[in-house]
Amino acid sequence: MAGGERRVNAARASAGARVAARQQGSGRGRRLLALLAAALGLAGGIALVNLVWAPADPAQSSADLAGGGTPLADPPSRPITVLLIGSDADRLGAASNGAAPAGPANSDALLLARIRPDGSLRLLNLPSDLAVQLPGGKELQSLGSLYRQGGAALTGSAVAALLGLESGQPERFVVLPRGAMRELVDGLGGVELNPETALRSFDKTQNFRVDIQAGLQDFSGRQVEQMVRFKEPSLGEQGRRIRQQTVLEALLQQLSRPDQWPKLPELLTRLTPQVETNLSKGEALSLLSAAIQKPEAIRFDQLPLSPPTKPNQPLRQLQASAPLPLWPRE
User: Topology of domain 10-176+273-301, per CATH?
Assistant: First the structure.
Protein backbone atom coordinates (compact mmCIF):
# COMPACT_ATOMS: atom_id res chain seq x y z
CA MET A 1 0.00 0.00 0.00
CA ALA A 2 2.94 2.34 -0.21
CA GLY A 3 4.35 4.19 -3.17
CA GLY A 4 7.78 2.86 -2.24
CA GLU A 5 8.43 1.87 1.35
CA ARG A 6 8.20 4.67 3.84
CA ARG A 7 10.86 4.33 6.49
CA VAL A 8 11.30 6.16 9.72
CA ASN A 9 14.63 7.97 10.02
CA ALA A 10 17.25 5.39 10.92
CA ALA A 11 18.91 7.72 13.40
CA ARG A 12 15.66 7.81 15.33
CA ALA A 13 15.44 4.03 15.27
CA SER A 14 18.66 3.39 17.16
CA ALA A 15 17.07 2.84 20.57
CA GLY A 16 15.13 -0.27 21.53
CA ALA A 17 12.07 -0.91 23.65
CA ARG A 18 11.99 -2.98 26.81
CA VAL A 19 9.28 -4.12 29.12
CA ALA A 20 9.38 -3.02 32.74
CA ALA A 21 8.95 -5.59 35.44
CA ARG A 22 5.42 -6.40 36.44
CA GLN A 23 4.40 -4.53 39.52
CA GLN A 24 1.74 -5.09 42.16
CA GLY A 25 -0.03 -2.04 43.53
CA SER A 26 -3.11 -1.13 45.57
CA GLY A 27 -4.09 -4.78 45.95
CA ARG A 28 -4.34 -5.51 42.25
CA GLY A 29 -1.95 -6.67 39.55
CA ARG A 30 -0.59 -4.00 37.24
CA ARG A 31 1.70 -4.34 34.28
CA LEU A 32 3.42 -1.06 33.50
CA LEU A 33 5.25 -0.42 30.27
CA ALA A 34 8.64 1.24 30.28
CA LEU A 35 9.86 2.18 26.80
CA LEU A 36 13.50 3.09 26.36
CA ALA A 37 12.89 4.32 22.83
CA ALA A 38 13.25 7.77 21.38
CA ALA A 39 9.88 9.47 21.16
CA LEU A 40 9.88 9.19 17.40
CA GLY A 41 12.05 6.09 17.17
CA LEU A 42 11.13 2.86 15.49
CA ALA A 43 12.10 0.03 17.80
CA GLY A 44 12.25 -3.65 17.15
CA GLY A 45 12.81 -3.20 13.43
CA ILE A 46 9.27 -2.31 12.32
CA ALA A 47 10.50 -0.40 9.28
CA LEU A 48 14.11 -1.46 8.87
CA VAL A 49 13.57 -5.12 8.01
CA ASN A 50 14.60 -7.17 5.02
CA LEU A 51 11.98 -8.15 2.51
CA VAL A 52 10.66 -11.64 3.07
CA TRP A 53 9.59 -11.87 -0.49
CA ALA A 54 10.36 -10.00 -3.65
CA PRO A 55 7.68 -7.57 -4.86
CA ALA A 56 5.23 -9.67 -6.85
CA ASP A 57 3.98 -9.00 -10.33
CA PRO A 58 0.27 -8.13 -9.87
CA ALA A 59 -0.47 -9.57 -13.32
CA GLN A 60 0.91 -12.97 -12.38
CA SER A 61 -1.61 -15.41 -10.94
CA SER A 62 -0.76 -17.19 -7.71
CA ALA A 63 -1.39 -20.81 -6.93
CA ASP A 64 -4.97 -21.98 -7.23
CA LEU A 65 -7.12 -21.14 -4.23
CA ALA A 66 -10.52 -22.54 -3.37
CA GLY A 67 -12.60 -22.14 -6.47
CA GLY A 68 -9.75 -20.79 -8.64
CA GLY A 69 -6.65 -18.63 -8.58
CA THR A 70 -6.44 -15.00 -7.56
CA PRO A 71 -4.88 -12.39 -9.86
CA LEU A 72 -2.89 -10.92 -6.96
CA ALA A 73 0.48 -12.37 -5.96
CA ASP A 74 2.11 -15.37 -4.36
CA PRO A 75 1.66 -15.54 -0.57
CA PRO A 76 4.65 -14.85 1.73
CA SER A 77 7.06 -17.65 2.47
CA ARG A 78 6.47 -17.48 6.23
CA PRO A 79 4.04 -15.89 8.73
CA ILE A 80 4.00 -12.09 8.75
CA THR A 81 2.70 -9.88 11.56
CA VAL A 82 1.20 -6.51 10.61
CA LEU A 83 0.10 -3.72 12.97
CA LEU A 84 -2.93 -1.79 11.73
CA ILE A 85 -3.35 1.66 13.27
CA GLY A 86 -6.68 3.37 12.71
CA SER A 87 -6.09 7.10 13.02
CA ASP A 88 -8.83 9.40 14.32
CA ALA A 89 -7.72 12.08 11.81
CA ASP A 90 -9.42 12.32 8.44
CA ARG A 91 -6.13 12.24 6.52
CA LEU A 92 -2.39 11.96 7.06
CA GLY A 93 -0.76 15.17 8.25
CA ALA A 94 -4.04 16.81 9.24
CA ALA A 95 -3.53 19.73 11.61
CA SER A 96 -6.34 18.46 13.84
CA ASN A 97 -7.82 15.04 14.37
CA GLY A 98 -11.40 16.26 14.11
CA ALA A 99 -12.16 14.38 17.31
CA ALA A 100 -12.63 15.22 20.97
CA PRO A 101 -10.42 16.42 22.47
CA ALA A 102 -9.08 18.20 19.41
CA GLY A 103 -5.38 17.96 18.66
CA PRO A 104 -2.90 15.73 16.83
CA ALA A 105 -4.09 12.34 15.65
CA ASN A 106 -4.53 9.45 18.09
CA SER A 107 -4.97 5.79 17.24
CA ASP A 108 -8.58 4.97 18.03
CA ALA A 109 -8.34 1.44 16.59
CA LEU A 110 -5.40 -0.96 16.91
CA LEU A 111 -5.21 -4.41 15.37
CA LEU A 112 -2.50 -7.05 15.00
CA ALA A 113 -2.81 -9.46 12.08
CA ARG A 114 -0.81 -12.68 11.78
CA ILE A 115 -0.98 -13.97 8.20
CA ARG A 116 0.35 -17.41 7.31
CA PRO A 117 1.20 -18.68 3.82
CA ASP A 118 -1.61 -21.27 3.98
CA GLY A 119 -4.21 -18.54 4.50
CA SER A 120 -4.60 -18.94 8.27
CA LEU A 121 -5.40 -15.51 9.68
CA ARG A 122 -5.30 -14.53 13.35
CA LEU A 123 -6.39 -11.10 14.50
CA LEU A 124 -5.93 -9.38 17.84
CA ASN A 125 -8.01 -6.29 18.60
CA LEU A 126 -5.90 -4.14 20.96
CA PRO A 127 -7.80 -1.85 23.34
CA SER A 128 -6.87 1.76 22.64
CA ASP A 129 -7.66 2.45 26.32
CA LEU A 130 -5.04 -0.03 27.56
CA ALA A 131 -2.88 1.53 30.29
CA VAL A 132 0.82 2.16 29.58
CA GLN A 133 3.50 4.25 31.26
CA LEU A 134 6.46 5.84 29.53
CA PRO A 135 9.86 6.14 31.25
CA GLY A 136 9.92 9.25 33.37
CA GLY A 137 6.17 9.60 33.11
CA LYS A 138 4.27 10.12 36.33
CA GLU A 139 0.88 9.06 35.04
CA LEU A 140 -0.54 6.13 33.16
CA GLN A 141 -1.82 6.91 29.69
CA SER A 142 -3.76 5.08 27.01
CA LEU A 143 -2.07 2.98 24.35
CA GLY A 144 -4.00 4.95 21.74
CA SER A 145 -2.41 8.24 22.85
CA LEU A 146 1.10 7.05 21.96
CA TYR A 147 0.51 7.63 18.25
CA ARG A 148 0.37 11.40 18.71
CA GLN A 149 3.68 11.27 20.60
CA GLY A 150 5.72 8.94 18.45
CA GLY A 151 3.63 7.72 15.53
CA ALA A 152 3.76 4.12 14.35
CA ALA A 153 7.26 3.75 15.81
CA LEU A 154 6.35 4.31 19.43
CA THR A 155 3.00 2.55 19.09
CA GLY A 156 4.62 -0.55 17.59
CA SER A 157 7.32 -0.59 20.26
CA ALA A 158 4.70 -0.38 23.00
CA VAL A 159 2.64 -3.19 21.51
CA ALA A 160 5.70 -5.42 21.19
CA ALA A 161 6.74 -4.74 24.78
CA LEU A 162 3.27 -5.23 26.24
CA LEU A 163 2.67 -8.53 24.47
CA GLY A 164 6.20 -9.90 24.71
CA LEU A 165 6.58 -10.27 20.95
CA GLU A 166 9.73 -11.66 19.41
CA SER A 167 12.49 -9.27 18.35
CA GLY A 168 11.61 -7.45 15.15
CA GLN A 169 7.85 -7.83 15.58
CA PRO A 170 5.57 -6.51 14.24
CA GLU A 171 7.39 -6.50 10.92
CA ARG A 172 4.99 -4.29 9.00
CA PHE A 173 2.54 -1.53 9.85
CA VAL A 174 -0.28 0.38 8.18
CA VAL A 175 -1.70 3.70 9.40
CA LEU A 176 -5.23 4.09 8.07
CA PRO A 177 -6.88 7.53 8.52
CA ARG A 178 -10.66 7.77 8.40
CA GLY A 179 -10.70 9.09 4.85
CA ALA A 180 -8.72 6.08 3.64
CA MET A 181 -11.11 3.72 5.41
CA ARG A 182 -14.07 5.32 3.62
CA GLU A 183 -12.20 5.05 0.30
CA LEU A 184 -11.51 1.36 0.93
CA VAL A 185 -15.15 0.54 1.67
CA ASP A 186 -16.52 2.56 -1.24
CA GLY A 187 -13.89 1.08 -3.57
CA LEU A 188 -15.28 -2.37 -2.78
CA GLY A 189 -18.82 -1.22 -3.53
CA GLY A 190 -19.74 -1.12 0.16
CA VAL A 191 -20.07 -3.93 2.68
CA GLU A 192 -23.09 -5.82 3.97
CA LEU A 193 -23.77 -5.42 7.69
CA ASN A 194 -26.68 -6.34 9.95
CA PRO A 195 -26.87 -4.12 13.07
CA GLU A 196 -29.16 -5.66 15.68
CA THR A 197 -30.29 -2.26 16.95
CA ALA A 198 -30.41 1.26 15.58
CA LEU A 199 -27.41 3.45 16.41
CA ARG A 200 -28.07 7.15 16.90
CA SER A 201 -26.08 9.93 18.52
CA PHE A 202 -24.82 13.46 17.93
CA ASP A 203 -21.54 14.78 19.33
CA LYS A 204 -21.56 18.58 19.31
CA THR A 205 -17.85 18.80 20.12
CA GLN A 206 -17.00 16.86 16.93
CA ASN A 207 -20.07 17.89 14.93
CA PHE A 208 -20.46 14.19 14.20
CA ARG A 209 -23.81 12.45 13.80
CA VAL A 210 -24.51 8.72 13.84
CA ASP A 211 -27.81 7.60 12.32
CA ILE A 212 -27.88 3.90 11.43
CA GLN A 213 -30.99 1.78 11.05
CA ALA A 214 -31.19 -1.77 12.36
CA GLY A 215 -31.28 -4.72 9.96
CA LEU A 216 -29.40 -6.13 7.00
CA GLN A 217 -28.21 -3.44 4.58
CA ASP A 218 -25.33 -2.32 2.38
CA PHE A 219 -23.08 0.20 4.13
CA SER A 220 -21.15 2.97 2.41
CA GLY A 221 -17.80 4.19 3.67
CA ARG A 222 -19.41 7.01 5.68
CA GLN A 223 -21.89 4.61 7.27
CA VAL A 224 -19.08 2.25 8.24
CA GLU A 225 -17.27 5.21 9.82
CA GLN A 226 -20.38 5.99 11.86
CA MET A 227 -20.62 2.39 13.03
CA VAL A 228 -17.02 2.07 14.19
CA ARG A 229 -17.01 5.49 15.87
CA PHE A 230 -20.30 5.07 17.72
CA LYS A 231 -19.84 4.63 21.47
CA GLU A 232 -22.78 3.90 23.72
CA PRO A 233 -22.45 4.75 27.43
CA SER A 234 -23.14 1.19 28.60
CA LEU A 235 -20.32 -0.54 26.70
CA GLY A 236 -17.95 2.30 25.80
CA GLU A 237 -14.71 1.18 24.13
CA GLN A 238 -15.63 -2.48 24.43
CA GLY A 239 -18.70 -1.91 22.26
CA ARG A 240 -16.59 -0.10 19.68
CA ARG A 241 -14.15 -3.02 19.53
CA ILE A 242 -17.03 -5.44 18.95
CA ARG A 243 -18.33 -3.34 16.05
CA GLN A 244 -14.83 -2.95 14.62
CA GLN A 245 -14.51 -6.73 14.57
CA THR A 246 -17.90 -7.05 12.84
CA VAL A 247 -16.86 -4.54 10.17
CA LEU A 248 -13.52 -6.28 9.63
CA GLU A 249 -15.21 -9.64 9.12
CA ALA A 250 -17.54 -8.06 6.55
CA LEU A 251 -14.61 -6.44 4.73
CA LEU A 252 -12.70 -9.72 4.52
CA GLN A 253 -15.79 -11.49 3.20
CA GLN A 254 -16.12 -8.79 0.53
CA LEU A 255 -12.45 -9.02 -0.39
CA SER A 256 -12.70 -12.79 -0.79
CA ARG A 257 -15.29 -12.53 -3.57
CA PRO A 258 -13.69 -13.36 -6.95
CA ASP A 259 -15.43 -10.40 -8.63
CA GLN A 260 -13.47 -8.08 -6.31
CA TRP A 261 -9.99 -9.40 -7.15
CA PRO A 262 -9.50 -7.43 -10.39
CA LYS A 263 -10.24 -4.21 -8.49
CA LEU A 264 -7.66 -4.66 -5.77
CA PRO A 265 -4.41 -3.57 -7.50
CA GLU A 266 -6.02 -0.33 -8.71
CA LEU A 267 -7.68 0.25 -5.32
CA LEU A 268 -4.32 -0.14 -3.57
CA THR A 269 -2.85 2.42 -5.97
CA ARG A 270 -5.59 4.91 -5.04
CA LEU A 271 -5.01 4.30 -1.33
CA THR A 272 -1.23 4.71 -1.56
CA PRO A 273 -1.09 8.48 -0.88
CA GLN A 274 -3.71 8.20 1.86
CA VAL A 275 -1.94 5.72 4.14
CA GLU A 276 1.40 5.44 5.90
CA THR A 277 3.03 2.02 5.68
CA ASN A 278 6.27 0.12 5.20
CA LEU A 279 4.52 -2.40 2.95
CA SER A 280 5.30 -2.27 -0.73
CA LYS A 281 2.38 -2.72 -3.11
CA GLY A 282 3.70 -6.17 -4.01
CA GLU A 283 3.83 -7.16 -0.34
CA ALA A 284 0.32 -5.84 0.27
CA LEU A 285 -1.04 -7.87 -2.64
CA SER A 286 0.82 -10.93 -1.38
CA LEU A 287 -0.68 -10.63 2.11
CA LEU A 288 -4.15 -10.02 0.68
CA SER A 289 -3.78 -13.11 -1.50
CA ALA A 290 -3.07 -15.20 1.60
CA ALA A 291 -5.64 -13.53 3.86
CA ILE A 292 -8.62 -14.08 1.55
CA GLN A 293 -8.02 -17.79 1.03
CA LYS A 294 -10.14 -18.85 4.01
CA PRO A 295 -12.43 -15.99 5.08
CA GLU A 296 -14.61 -18.44 7.01
CA ALA A 297 -11.69 -19.54 9.20
CA ILE A 298 -10.55 -16.21 10.68
CA ARG A 299 -9.55 -16.43 14.33
CA PHE A 300 -10.06 -13.42 16.60
CA ASP A 301 -8.05 -13.42 19.83
CA GLN A 302 -8.65 -11.44 23.01
CA LEU A 303 -6.20 -10.08 25.56
CA PRO A 304 -6.52 -11.10 29.23
CA LEU A 305 -7.75 -7.87 30.80
CA SER A 306 -8.23 -7.24 34.51
CA PRO A 307 -11.81 -6.39 35.50
CA PRO A 308 -12.46 -2.67 36.08
CA THR A 309 -11.97 -1.73 39.72
CA LYS A 310 -14.43 1.15 39.63
CA PRO A 311 -17.31 2.40 37.46
CA ASN A 312 -16.34 4.31 34.31
CA GLN A 313 -12.67 3.40 34.75
CA PRO A 314 -10.91 5.27 31.90
CA LEU A 315 -8.00 2.83 31.40
CA ARG A 316 -7.90 -0.95 31.24
CA GLN A 317 -5.01 -3.09 32.46
CA LEU A 318 -3.63 -6.47 31.50
CA GLN A 319 -3.78 -9.29 33.99
CA ALA A 320 -0.46 -9.28 35.82
CA SER A 321 -0.48 -13.08 36.11
CA ALA A 322 -0.80 -13.73 32.37
CA PRO A 323 2.45 -15.27 31.03
CA LEU A 324 4.37 -13.72 28.15
CA PRO A 325 4.09 -13.82 25.22
CA LEU A 326 0.44 -12.85 25.30
CA TRP A 327 0.07 -13.34 21.54
CA PRO A 328 0.08 -15.31 19.41
CA ARG A 329 -0.50 -18.29 21.69
CA GLU A 330 -1.29 -21.57 19.97
Answer: Nucleotidyltransferase; domain 5 (3.30.420)
